[in-house]
Amino acid sequence: MKSSNHHDKTRPVMPEFYMPAMWPLDLQNAIVDWIGAWFWRRRMRRLLAQDIEGRIRLGGARGVVAQGAGEPLRSIAQRRARWLRPQGGCNRPR
Predict the structure, then answer these.
(1) For the chain, what are the domain ranges?
(2) Distance of CA 24 to CAs 27, 57, 70, 79, Å?
(3) pLDDT at 89 exceeding the cut of 70
(4) What is the largest distance, in Å, between two alpha-carbon atoms of the chain?
(5) What is the C-alpha to C-alpha distance for residues 73 and 45, in angstroms, rounded to an integer?
(6) In whole angstroms, how far apart are CA 85 and each of 21, 32, 55?
(7) Tens of pLDDT along 7-63?
(8) Does residue 86 have a pLDDT over 80?
């Protein structure tokens, strides 16, 4: 069964031959990473607020959620970039 998770989408691969008039893929990926990090941290903060209000119970996961809610966007975006994009450049078969 295929997952409909938005994290499963593949990212555009940087071509070996980069023309100056091409869309800046690195900038696009950085913006997507920052926006995704912001959404993730907002989700963690919302879960923490709902736990404090008593609407949900986080139980043992409360510490992890609290850590994620207080984490800087920069570190979340960097972790997200490492997770979504493989290190090693172009993945096209030769």
Answers:
(1) 24-83
(2) 5, 43, 31, 21
(3) no
(4) 56
(5) 13
(6) 23, 12, 36
(7) 667 777 777 776 677 778 889 999 999 999 999 999 999 999 999 999 999 999 999
(8) no
Residue with tokens 């938005």: 6
The token pair at 4 is 């409909």
Between CA 39 and CA 10 the distance in angstroms is 19
Would you say 18 and 12 are in contact if contact means Cβ atoms under 8 Å apart? Answer: no
Length of the chain: 94
Which of 63, 60, 58, 65 minimizes the C-alpha distance to 42?
65
**Tell me, what's the pLDDT at 12?**
73
Contact 89, 14 (CB under 8 A): yes
